Amino acid sequence: MPTSPTKIAVAYxxxxxxxxxxxxxxxxxxxxxxxxxxxxxxxxxxxDGIEQKARSTGACECVVMDLKQEFLEEFAFPMAIxxxxxxxxxxxxxxxxxxxxxxxxxxxxxxxxxxxLAHGCTGKGNDQVRFESTYAALAPQLAVIAPWRxxxxxxxxxEAMLDYxxxxxxxxxxxxxxxxxxxxxxxxxxxxxxxxxxxxxAPPEDVWMLTTSPAQAPDQHxxxxxxxxxxxxxxxxxxxxDSVSIMNTLNAIxxxxxxxxIDLVENRLVGMKSxxxxxxxGGTILMEALRGLEQLVLDRDTLHWKQRLALEFGDHVYxxxxxxxxxxxxxxAAQSIAQVMDGDVVVRCYKGTxxxxxxxxxxxxxxxxxxxxxxxxxxxxxxxxxxxxxxSLPSRIRALKQNIATQDLAR
Length: 411
Known about the structure:
Layout: E1 7-11, H1 16-29, E2 32-39, H2 44-47, H3 50-56, E3 61-66, H4 68-82, H5 93-111, E4 116-118, H6 127-138, E5 143-145, H7 158-167, E6 181-184, E7 189-192, E8 222-229, E9 232-236, E10 239-240, H8 243-256, E11 261-267, E12 273-279, H9 281-297, H10 300-319, H11 325-338, E13 343-350, E14 353-360, H12 368-371, H13 383-391, H14 393-410
Parallel strand pairs: 1-2, 1-4, 2-3, 4-5
Antiparallel strand pairs: 6-7, 7-12, 8-9, 8-13, 9-10, 11-12, 13-14
Helix pairs in contact: 1-7, 4-5, 5-6, 8-9, 10-11
């Protein structure tokens, strides 16, 4: 591992931090810097002109990688099929993107002859762990530079970074008045900072960007039909689409109805609590549809085991240990289970809520003949007598033993 790298690949977003990091690396390491831009669906607002911007800050090269399809099909959709949600609410839009972005950064670094990797994550957050865990798994021979953790990094505030860029005549669209720190991709957008740092303050309406206020959402509900093959979405409202089009379509529908907002105080991996506002419109109705489908096609033991597995899988997503044998083994198990997850689910969106209201599958285990409350000819109610006696036998034996002991004491 080189002590003085000659070429560094930096994960570049074009935001304030990474705009500072490129010239800072050039000044402190006398090395060429390659800016690696990961397009995970954050939108044209962030990507327009980004190559020129990277070069104007000192990058010798800018590599823009279109990761939208692989982000969904290899990362976000598997997480949704598994049913993993962090601490009961967070659909992990930032967490699930990091291994995808870091893998692309490693690929670009190796292709361009870099001997080091760098990122702009702070020492307080989870992302530093996610990026560096991926580096360790995929390219342990490359040096890692984390400027925020170095004593020579003295840009500890937004004002200091803006002043640093101004002195060097480096353009940046950021301002000292920025209220929120945001991270966007096809799956979600997160909002932190500003008024959200006080958990006693409700999120102001200007936080939200992807979703209509539920109070202002249409008064008429909208039903959306999502079709699945092996758990992966294949069509919306009968129209077959690629994964990116499916996500864009679901985001638009759910966003219009105010679906997918959460306000969460979460436990970070590094030990502190943080407060974030998250919008995951399309992901929310997609996961609702998947839960509706698996209710239909999975037997009780399989479904319950998968739900337990989802909790542990979610920890691996949140913690950034995606490229590990145990995470891969859990996904292999989920893929096996998901083979029967074919069918259609109708999700009803209405004023911030989404609920699966119709479901069908060629692999359905639901039998109306057995489940009906009306008269049937396939189920003998008397069969339940023996089942209940055996099922409750331990309780009956315990009670009998206790009664005998109580009677002995009474004597």
